[in-house]
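Now read the record:
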Amino acid sequence: MPRLLALALISSSLLAAPAMAQSFMDVDQVTLDAGLGMSYSPEYMGSGDNDASPWFILKNITLGTPEGEKQGFSITPSLRYMGERDSGDYDRLTGLDNIDAAGEVGLRLNYVTGPFSSYGTIRKGFGGHEGVAGEIGTRYRYQPNDKLTLWTGAELQLGDDKFTGTYFGITDSEALTSNFAAYDPEGGAYAANLSVEARYMLTPKTSVMGKVTYGRLLGDAADSPIVEDKNQPSISIGVARQLNFRF
């Protein structure tokens, strides 16, 4: 599945290459929402217990002058931060290796028609994992007034063997130091999410953001011996500021 997503994104990028080249040449600024909040979510992927943790907001990256949600196809950068997993903090993970914080960098292909949008992302990890991950999903936007915007969405999360092996696998050496047998999960769709998201503009540049997500682990990820609960709900709230970088 990740390979299919990668091929789809690469093919679309090649088809759109002339227009993209011209578009990137015309870009004189980058705009994004960046901020910080709190998230109440599973302690680690697969945990049955939730805990409060920082929510690093990095959303709505726009190349060029922001003019609302652009209709049709567009390609934008895609970034994700994943926190560290210290096995010493959880009795269930005793004997497993720690996982450092990870950053992911890649591309997002969007298609917007009216209030509906569909997307696919692909990113390469560095730091805590060196795999390839991404999502495919769809969202519906509802804007009751000029300050409040709501989204409902459905998303399938994807990862290759390196990604799922890092977060759901048990190596031979870990099997010797933990209570788990060795486990080598394959890549593919590892989670499905349903979400409701809101943004309220306090000022033209500052907004309060919130998100409620119901996630469920799938496939080899869900079958991992470290997983206590396949259901993975979360709630997040924070404040973001629109940043503008001109060239």
